[in-house]
Amino acid sequence: MHKHLTCACGYVVHADSDDEMVRKAQDHSKAAHGKMMSREDILKMAKEAKH
Prior knowledge:
By secondary structure, this protein is α+β, with helices and mostly antiparallel strands. It has one domain. The protein has helices at residues 18-33, 39-45; strands at 3-6, 12-15, 47-48. Strands 2-1-3 form a three-stranded antiparallel β-sheet, with helices on one face. A hairpin with a 5-residue loop joins strand 1 (3-6) and strand 2 (12-15). The radius of gyration is 10 Å and the shape is globular. The relative contact order is 0.28.
C-alpha cells in the first residue's frame, strides 16, 4: 500500500511499505531538522495515498 507523509516543512515522503516510510522519514528528519522521529510517530502521521 502506497503511503504519503507530509512534514511540517512541506517535504513529502512517498513509500510503498512501513519500513520504507520509516527509513525515508527518519533520513529526512535527521538531515533537515537535526532530530530523529520514532517509528510509531512516523506511522501515525503517514496516510494512505488516494491515487
